[in-house]
Amino acid sequence: MWRQLKGFKELKPHVLTWEHLNRERFPLGGIPVEILHFVPEPQNQKGTAKWLNRLQCLPQRNFLGSVGDERKAIRTYLKSIQPTVILAQFGFMGLRILPVAKEMGVPVVVHFHGLDISSSLNNRWYRWSLLNKLRDFSAIVVVGTHQKEWLLSQGILQQQVHLIPCGVPTDEFMPKDKCRSDLIRFLAVSRLVEKKGLEYTIQAFSKVLQQHATAQLHILGDGPLQEKLEQLAERLAIKSNVFFHGSVGGDVVNDQMRKADIFVQHSIVASSGDAEGFGVSVAEASSMELPVVCSNASGIVDQVIDGETGFLVPQKDVEAMAQRMLQLCDDADLREAMGKTGRRRMVQHYDTKKQIAKLEEVLLSVSNK
Asked: What φ, ψ does residue 306 adopt, rounded to 5°?
């Protein structure tokens, strides 16, 4: 989202948000930011407040739509800047802004990412509201083919849905010549949550160690499953070969990718229904000429060409994951060839600048100007 804001060429962006986090890490420069001091997620309040919010939302047939003083504040702000188009990041924000935008005649483009079109659909209030209002959006942007297919299955017109993956800044994720070594470094970069499938990656890596005792698995990221995953590594007696680095900055991720030989990500559809939208770290790894071993989960199948830029394996299939990891361990030429093919694919089809240009084109096409 930050790259989109900074990358638009013809549009002059303004930001409306309920919270403004990571300001130093993602500086907006001169882009104006308006912060609304209301409850970020009123639909998730407890007790009477939650039901009062739903009662207020009922007439508009949208249980996530803005109401009351918040709606007035949004209207006042929009009148002050006179937007020609609104880009709503995530489905729930699209529903939030839609009532005021529709009232003022401002087109809204909703940008779906992942959970807002997977696990969030388990919430009947959200699902009902979304299905009821999808056709009110001037355009819909998705990051994966699976998301587009779901929308089309709901009767949304083909011309309303635009497949625009998030992409990767290929000029920032540049490969570095590697010295071939007997020490093979695997790298995983993700939140330590269920849908990232780290437990299957660790189990597969334990099988790799049976033939490559010095191999290493480096895991960048933190999350609620860290302790459980560390215990799994200890139980499998591979703790000395698995390194948990925790949450790190982009420069560290970049450095670790340059040191790595193979990137791994065994994403799954979580028990909640949460599914991968676009595998950002997978794209970054491919841009760095790393061959990837991933599961065939959701948006990842769009990114990886099986057998050419890496390997795709069935979800939760530890044995298949291990076999592909071993195949790359044993064949340095294959690693290099897949890595180079992967980078060419990222530059040609997934470069961030190209994706932002496509998004801006959609916004301009429905704009009031």
From this structure: -60, 125
Contact indicator for 219, 245 with CB cutoff of 8 Å: yes
**Residue 179 pLDDT > 70:** no
How deeply is 29 buried, as exposed, middle or buried, from its count of CB atoms within 10 A (0-12, 13-18, 19+)?
Answer: exposed
Is residue 208 within 8 Å of 328, Cβ to Cβ? no
pTM score > 0.85 for this model?
Answer: yes
Per DSSP, the residues of 243-278 read EEEES--HHHHHHHHHH-SEEEE-----TT----S-
User: What is d(CA 219, CA 26) in angstroms, rounded to the nearest whole number?
Assistant: 24
Q: What angle do CA 39, 45, 46 make, to 5 degrees?
A: 150
User: Nearest 10 degrees: CA dihedral of 242, 248, 250, 255?
Assistant: -40
Report d(CA 91, CA 93) in Å as an integer.
Answer: 5
DSSP symbol at 119: G
CA angle 114, 110, 127 (to 5 degrees): 60
DSSP β-bridge partners for residue 161: 140
pLDDT tens profile 146-170: 999 999 999 999 999 999 998 899 9
CB burial of residue 324 (10 Å; 0-12, 13-18, 19+): buried
